[in-house]
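Q: Given only this backbone (554 positions), what sequence would you predict?
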């Protein structure tokens, strides 16, 4: 058999071309991987920088310190923009945008929100309980004392640690009286409540540490209580002088949502969406009531034993439903995480909005407690990517965590959770209406078109059955939080919408590929991606980056 020289030459050329192409792809891939490593290194630098320096043992929020540090911040942001991500995978591009969002959050806080200047509640330091989202809701300073993380009785080492942390609070309380120069009246007046609460929390801490604790710790608690009382007195004196608005305005609100929280919606978009969801929830509730009119009404539990029995039955039903209906892969640690937050019996006169519903049927609220599954995942199976391992800064997680928790209330209902108890469906629509109403009020408060009190009236009056008229403290707490943290009040509904949109695009993609949509696969992938904004989740799951491009071009 003869092989011509021309044929041999052609084959050699093909082989050489192929090898060159493979080498090019490998070098390109290595280059991209190396650049992603550079991004992760920059992320570490950024997180180290974001932690403020200390001034007299407390985090330093003085204006002169911010002014000195701002130039260093700008250099970090320039480094981020100098990284070429054009040839990166979608997943790695998403990481780049996570870091951009956090840096934009720092910039916005420095320029506009200024919680250390405008918001007395920023100086709340003692936290007795864990949040149900990855970090505390609302602006929180870097020296927070997480009492819930301590095991009592304390070890000697923990007594020393806690004493030092408390004395830093004393220093921060002193600093607060220098930093708080803002004129946001409602933030100021309502924020005093948070600092007063700290006095009660410190009294509880005194009881928790007991008489056998060290003199050092006892003295630290007393000094912290005295300094907190002193701060309250000062805030009340200064409060009479405050006359300005507390909202950040429509333009700032939109910029913040699109550039920090990575939500593609404008202020006006959110108004339309929340009005639509409020109308839909009310009308759907009335249709449910019509459908169920011949059924007996739900009856509230009457004592501890009845509550515990209903809670146990509901948790078992929830876990069985999630597994058998292929809603999500149920981890062994899911049920313990839910049981730890099953709630308790509350006498009728003391029930606020969520207790009213949970004493009739806790399953709608337990659906929202998907929160605790997500936190358990973070604890037991932390993300391997350090950029997604913990909580994103500046509450950037809000639409992701609150949105998913709100969305699954309705999703689980449609998937059949209440097929044997149709009356419980009514509670789901009441929950959605309440979240739409409170978010709608918060939008007008941020536009400075309503006071916080007026926004609260929308919240109260548009919640069905008068369930928000029973306990005014919850109303104040929620509207105050949403004024402190722009977008948090709407994140339940906007996040719900963004998750539904992601699911629609994901399902369409599967259909186009000739594949079956499986809810469990969707939810598992969502969990695996981590607690990042849903516009970035959508991009990574479907390849659709139009929302992100639109936001960055605005």
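A: Predicted residues:
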């Amino acid at each position: 058999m003869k092989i011509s020289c021309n044929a041999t030459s052609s084959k050699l050329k093909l082989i050489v071309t192929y090898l060159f192409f493979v080498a090019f792809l490998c070098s390109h891939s290595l280059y991209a991987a190396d650049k992603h490593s550079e991004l992760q290194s920059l992320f570490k630098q950024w997180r180290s920088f974001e932690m403020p320096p200390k001034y007299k043992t407390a985090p330093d929020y003085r204006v002169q310190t911010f002014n000195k540090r701002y130039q260093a911040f700008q250099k970090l942001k320039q480094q981020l923009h100098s990284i070429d991500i054009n040839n990166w995978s979608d997943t790695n591009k998403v990481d780049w945008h996570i870091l951009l969002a956090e840096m934009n959050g720092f910039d916005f806080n420095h320029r506009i929100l200024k919680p250390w200047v405008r918001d007395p509640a920023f100086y709340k330091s003692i936290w007795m309980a864990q949040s149900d989202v990855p970090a505390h809701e609302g602006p929180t300073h870097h020296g927070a004392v997480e009492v819930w993380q301590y095991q009592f009785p304390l070890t000697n080492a923990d007594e020393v640690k806690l004493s030092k942390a408390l004395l830093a609070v004393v220093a921060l309380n002193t600093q607060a009286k220098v930093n708080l120069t803002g004129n946001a009246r409602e933030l100021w007046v309502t924020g005093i409540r948070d600092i007063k609460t700290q006095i009660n929390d410190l009294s509880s801490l005194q009881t928790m540490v007991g008489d056998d604790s060290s003199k050092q710790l006892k003295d630290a608690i007393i000094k912290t209580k005295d300094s907190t009382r002193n701060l309250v007195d000062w805030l009340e004196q200064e409060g009479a002088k405050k006359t300005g608005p507390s909202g950040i305005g429509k333009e700032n609100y939109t910029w913040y949502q699109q550039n920090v929280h990575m939500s593609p919606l404008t202020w006006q978009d959110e108004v339309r969406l929340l009005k639509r969801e409020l109308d839909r929830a009310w009308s759907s509730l009335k249709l449910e009531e019509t459908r169920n009119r011949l059924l007996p009404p739900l009856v509230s539990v009457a004592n501890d034993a009845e509550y515990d029995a209903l809670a146990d039955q509901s948790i078992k039903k929830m876990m069985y439903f999630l597994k058998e209906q292929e809603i999500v892969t149920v981890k062994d640690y899911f049920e313990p995480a839910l049981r730890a937050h099953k709630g308790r019996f509350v006498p009728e006169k003391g029930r606020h909005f969520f207790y009213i519903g949970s004493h009739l049927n806790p399953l709608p609220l337990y659906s929202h407690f998907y929160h605790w599954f997500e936190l358990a995942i973070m604890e037991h199976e932390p993300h391997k990517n350090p950029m997604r391992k913990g909580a994103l800064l500046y509450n950037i997680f809000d639409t992701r965590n609150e949105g998913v928790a709100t969305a699954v209330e309705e999703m689980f209902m449609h998937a059949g959770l209440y097929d044997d108890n149709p009356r419980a469906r009514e509670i789901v629509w009441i929950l959605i209406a309440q979240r739409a109403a409170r978010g709608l009020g918060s939008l007008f408060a941020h536009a400075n078109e309503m006071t916080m009190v007026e926004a609260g009236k929308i919240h109260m009056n548009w919640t069905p059955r008068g369930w928000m008229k029973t306990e005014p403290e919850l109303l104040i707490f929620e509207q105050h939080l949403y004024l402190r943290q722009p977008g948090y009040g709407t994140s339940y509904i906007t996040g719900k919408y963004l998750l539904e949109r992601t699911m629609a695009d994901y399902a369409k993609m599967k259909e186009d590929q000739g594949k079956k949509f499986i809810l469990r696969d969707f939810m598992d992938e969502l969990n695996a991606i981590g607690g990042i904004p849903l516009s970035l989740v959508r991009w990574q799951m479907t390849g659709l980056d139009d929302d992100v491009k639109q936001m960055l071009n605005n």
